[in-house]
Specification:
By secondary structure, the protein is of the alpha/beta class. It has two domains: 2-194, Thiolase/Chalcone synthase (Peroxisomal Thiolase, Chain A, domain 1); 203-308, Thiolase/Chalcone synthase (Peroxisomal Thiolase, Chain A, domain 1). 37% of the residues lie in helices and 25% in strands. The protein contains twelve helices and twelve strands. A ten-stranded mixed sheet has the order 4-3-5-7-1-8-12-11-9-10, sandwiched between helices. Strands 2-6 form a two-stranded parallel ribbon. A hairpin with a 2-residue loop joins strand 11 (289-297) and strand 12. Helix 2 (49-65) packs across helix 5. The chain is globular and about 60 Å long. The two termini are 22 Å apart.
């Protein structure tokens, strides 16, 4: 468990579009298009949705803080820019690896989102991308905490971005990642972090990350972690990225009804969904309260302790 004081002064995320069911694919939780009217249309057309979401939400977060540019940019992404990756690989096959344009490859790398945000904001500071599967966004938070220990005067823009891709979604469905109650999703969420409580809206007090393929063993460990953090269902709120059936291992049904929010019902399943769960918890929470966020993605488990100021 990593205890820290990551103060959040601004936040932003994209709202979700209505769910679109399909007979041969899982229902999709698609994010709304961000407001990128200040970007030239020709340049915007060349951007994948992941890049458009990242740039739009990052700017929205900075606008909330009335800040032109941060000192550092950190992005977590599980799958990167999948649309451009698939486009490049298909062109390789179709054109027999000849006369390939490099644009799709350049735009398909995982750090494209962070790089495009920095270019748009003219930010020449620290810039890093984390792709640690279901811990990508959380790893970015840990990196931000370490950076702020070295440079306590700085402000760090940290977020998570992932986009839907029909091919990958189909493969994930075949692998059993989705169910009737769990839709494939996408989105972006960003936080502006600092080392001081001045003007802060919330504070991340602790992060606990672990990997466990055995579900029962993982749920037992979650219960131990929540006990160590002094979680009280009568006082605290619990935002859960697990199924209601699994949640009954942590709390009795009556406590779940009063204190739990199952955020994947609305957001869907994707690797950095915790980035939007955190921003929504701040937006919908009550001052002077503590929210515990629990997430699971393909064997990666995380617990965040969020204090609303």
């Amino acid at each position: 468990m990593l205890k820290l004081n990551l103060y959040i002064t601004a936040f932003a995320h994209l709202e979700m579009q209505p769910c679109t069911p399909s007979s041969d694919r899982p229902s999709l939780r698609q994010a709304s298009e961000p407001d990128n009217t200040d970007i030239p249309p020709m340049q915007l057309r060349r951007m994948s949705k992941a890049v458009r979401m990242g740039i739009g939400v990052a700017k929205k977060c900075l606008d909330m803080a009335e800040l032109v540019s941060p000192d550092a940019i950190i992005v977590g992404t599980t799958m990167g820019c999948l649309q451009d990756t698939e486009r490049f690989l298909c062109k390789m096959i179709e054109q027999d690896e000849k006369m390939l344009t490099p644009t799709a490859f350049i735009q398909s790398t995982h750090n494209t989102v962070a790089g495009q945000i920095a270019l748009g904001l003219h930010c020449q500071g620290y810039n890093n991308t984390f792709s640690q599967h279901g811990h990508s966004f959380e790893s970015g938070l840990v990196a931000a905490a370490l950076l702020l220990q070295e440079h306590p005067e700085q402000q760090v823009l940290c977020g998570g971005v992932d986009e839907l891709n029909p091919t990958t979604t189909h493969l994930q469905q075949r692998a059993g990642l989705f169910s009737e109650s769990l839709s494939a999703g996408e989105g972006a969420g960003f936080l502006l972090l600092q080392n001081s409580a001045n003007t802060a809206l919330a504070c991340i007090r602790s992060i606990h990350l672990f990997q466990e393929k055995n579900k029962q063993a993982a749920l037992d460990q979650l219960k131990t972690i929540l006990t160590e953090l002094a979680f009280d269902p009568q006082v605290n709120h619990l935002w859960l990225g697990i199924t209601e059936n699994d949640a009954t291992t942590l709390l009795p049904p009556e406590s779940l009804k009063s204190s739990a929010v199952f955020f994947k019902k609305d957001l869907g399943e994707w690797g950095t969904v915790m980035s939007v769960a955190v921003t929504r918890a701040i937006q919908q929470g009550q001052d002077k309260s503590t929210v515990f966020l629990v997430n699971h993605f393909c064997g990666d488990w995380s617990v965040l302790q969020l204090e609303l100021l």
